[in-house]
Amino acid sequence: MNIVTISFFLGIVGLTLIVTYIAAKKTSSASDFYTAGGGLKGWQNGLAISGDYLSAAAFLGVSGAIALSGFDGFFFSVGYVVANLVVLYIIAEPLRNLGRYTLADMITARFNEKRVRAAAALSTITIVILYMIAQLVGAGALIQLLFGIDYWVAVLIVGTMMTIYVLFGGMGATSWVQIIKACLLLFGTGLMSFLVLRNFDYSIITMFDEVSRATEHGDNFLNSGVKYTNGFDSISMLIALVLGTGGLPHILMRFFTVKDARTARTSISWTTWITSIFFTLTIFLGFGAAAFVGVKDIMAANAAGNLAAPLLAEYLGGNVLLSFICAVAFATILAVVSGLVLTGASAISHDLYGEIFKKGQLTEKQQMLAARVGSIVLAVFSILLALGAQSLNVSFLVSFAFCIAASANLPVILYTIYWKRFTSTGAIAATVTGLISCLVLGALSPNVWGPEGTAIFVGEALFPLTNPAIITVPLGFLAGYLGSIFSKKEENDDIFDEITVKANTGMGVSDISH
Amino acid sequence: MANQMDISVEEQPKTKVGEPALANKKEKERQVYKEIAQMDSFKALVKKKKKFLFSTTILFLIAYIMLPVLTSFTTVLEHRVVGKITWVWIYSLSLFVMTIVLCEVYKFRANKFDKDVEKIMKEYEDNK
Fold this sequence. Notes:
The structure holds two protein chains of two kinds. By secondary structure, chain A is mainly alpha-helical. Chain A has helices at 3-26, 30-35, 42-53, 56-69, 71-98, 103-108, 114-147, 151-199, 204-214, 231-244, 249-253, 261-293, 295-301, 308-357, 364-388, 395-418, 424-443, 469-485, 493-505, 509-512, and strands at 449-450, 457-458. Chain A has a domain at 41-390: Sodium/glucose cotransporter (Up-down Bundle), CATH 1.20.1730.10. A two-stranded parallel sheet of chain A has the order 1-2. The N and C termini of chain A lie far apart (46 Å). In chain B, a hairpin with a 2-residue loop joins β1 (80-82) and β2 (85-86). Chain B has four helices and two strands. The longest helix of chain B is centred in the C-terminal third of the chain and has 41 residues, at 87-127.
């Protein structure tokens, strides 16, 4: 570590703490804490959502995957980009019009039952914890590799930082940390892509040509099949990516930070442009790393390829660019885990404690206290789990979180907004079936069972696919359908009228929130 | 800011005095929603919106899922277009272009739907 590296890091930490300080002064109610008072502008929220999409898994993981397996690594990029459309077309606006702080708020706008809220909160907490362990373990490993500090110290540093942002600055601070990080990441990626293209004489054809000779895969590197040999597995993974994004609670929560549906629309339009540009650039990062750093050196630094982008930065711009990219990667991790803590806390403190246990009878002050206690509890719990999970291969946890989001959350969201005959029993059936089928099939998958050294346990996997979405998503939808038609038709025509009018007109938004 | 005041008032534990007034307000609101939901112009809008949203969604999901289907079960995308660039890259990047185009189409249509909603609300106010 040297003076340049240290100054970039202190710069990032300092900037985010200033932002937190400013946000803390504005955070005086539960609405400020959970949704930044609904006061974000479209472009701000758009950048913040982009920040959520561009997690460490996306930046480091995707560029590394492209460097190691060519086109198969790029599959992720396609999934993340097209997912924007699912969110924009069928989720963003009705969600903004119906909800207040959480996904459960939106569903209970139609079914005002504790068990419905509890089921939604449960799936939110499960997804957040899986996602968070993946991010924290990844962060710990990365910081350990970059700076040579111990894994547990690295996890504690990240854990402490995220807790400070959330505890004092709430959603305001979390959003601004995301915005800063998204800008830095776009700048860094753009610069690196330009340098890569310059090294290929500004010719994309030359780049493809040279990359096809750079790896042992030869021309196959430029086609699918290096990594995914089971067609159903890649289809399943792509289903989880495109449908899961629209059910991820920390993404959904971002739509409550803007004042109305029109602004929600503008946000996701910003996100669409930014993510489309960013994920196109991942091709340059991945190919650049494969051609200039070489697969051997990338694998030597980290077998999963996570250090491909930092190594490429070192090749292109020496220590200065390396330090900058590492600092940006650090900011990326901090921003994403902060959003996760906040989302988990909203499910614990608002849904479970405030609405179910205390029946919504909390004063503003009590709500704030509950939110902060919830944040600490969730942060400590995740840090402890992450400390124990160091040797776990975590990359599958992320795709798994997408799978649960697509199977347990998405069916309920769609039915709640669009299906008149949907019942509360159907809602619970869909959530529970989606959640449990993912967990069970996941536990039987090759991620958990495999030959010595490739999985958690040694043995034969009973379920052949690494990502079960191709089975569990239809199961979630089917359970919601059957649960509804086999339960008594609820006398909720009036409420469905109310939902439809609110979802389509935005009436009542100013009453229920902000 | 004024709205924030509303919410803190609403969120206070309900007092006995406030309760009937609150229930009354809820009932009135529900009546308004019901009346709007039964308007022909509103029903037509919801139908038009649903048709646009779901038909487009199905189309782009099919275009998207064809990518792994084609790469897994056929070799059509493995042929070269220019230099060593194969169709699989062209197809993937076309999906990016599709995403941006459909995003803009959505914004255009949604702004029109907003105007329809304004009209419907005006019609509702006039007929009250």
